[in-house]
Amino acid sequence: MKTTFDCIPCIVSHVVQVAKMVTEDDDERHEIIKRTLAEAVNTNLNMTPPEQARLFHKIIKEITGVHDPYLDAKDRSTEFALELLPLLREEIKRHDNEFEAVVRLVIGGNIIDYGADHAFDIKDAKRRILEVFDMQLDLDEVEKLHEQLERADKVFYMADNCGEAVFDRLLIERYDSKITLGVRGEPILNDITPREIKRSGLNMVPHVHTGDMTPGVSMTHSSPEFLNEIRNADLVVSKGQGNFETLNEYDRPIFFLLRVKCAVIADLIGNAQLGDLQVISKNI
């Protein structure tokens, strides 16, 4: 998707929040805001919102020298998810349709997002994840996902956030012989990078990183190795809103698993509300 006018103030507001989190130096904060606003004036609306965010986060890193602002948050999210995982496995066993239960929990984990939700509180995450069993979900799309995963020989699974990635194991481990995992190449927000793969328990499958810090998949900035892997897959499973924003015009078979986190995305999907669980297939 292209950047909309509504995306720009949202991204700038997020940069202000990150600047306040990363540095207490007023001069550095001021410089971040000045350069961010200058960049916003020249916004290329043909770029995706995550590619815009990439530019702004590069400014923050250049000015503050902080390479991974969300490092502690990523580790806390991962540990929280690891503690919760056994309970979720027991919850799955209580459902007649275990695949549907897995998909609900995998999407439920997508709430662990410090980028789209500045006020995200890890303490409230357990309740919000378990509430997915009472939420609406397109079961026809869930069944279609099941069929396509069974049929595909090579699946590319594009992960999103730390913590959430631990819950992705519930789906990945069912198809681990055919899955390659995709992660970010450099730290950005609380997104998973190669550093967090082993602790998340995802080293059961081969992985490739984007070689880039876009909080999504940039077809412009991602490495040739990454692009080769995703293009050669029979099926792509894309987690989260940032990946949806960058891959929703992808021309190969793909499923998007996400929670709706902003009005722009709700409008793009159509007939969607904030917080909704979504399984969306394209080119199937």
C-alpha termini separation: 19 Å
Which strands sit side by side, in order, in the main sheet? 3-2-1-4-5-6
Which structural class do the helices and strands define? alpha/beta
- Total number of beta strands: 6
State the shape.
globular
CATH topology term of the largest domain: Rossmann fold
Kindly report the oligomeric state of this protein: single chain
Sketch the major β-sheet: 6 strands, mixed
Low-confidence stretches: none
The count of domains is 2
Estimate the mean pLDDT confidence: 92
CATH C-level label of the largest domain: Alpha Beta
Q: Could you state the CATH homologous superfamily of the largest domain?
A: Uncharacterised protein PF01937, DUF89, domain 3
CATH architecture of the largest domain: 3-Layer(aba) Sandwich
SSE pattern, N- to C-terminal: HHHHHHHEHEHEHEHEHE
How much of the polypeptide forms β-strand, as a percent range?
A: 5-15%
Q: Helix content range of the residues, please? A: 40-55%
Set out the fold topology.
Blueprint: H1 7-22, H2 26-41, H3 49-64, H4 71-93, H5 98-108, H6 125-130, H7 139-151, E1 155-158, H8 164-172, E2 179-183, H9 194-197, E3 207-209, H10 224-231, E4 235-239, H11 241-247, E5 254-259, H12 263-269, E6 277-282
Parallel strand pairs: 1-2, 1-4, 2-3, 4-5
Antiparallel strand pairs: 5-6
Helix pairs in contact: 1-2, 1-3, 2-3, 4-5, 4-8, 5-8
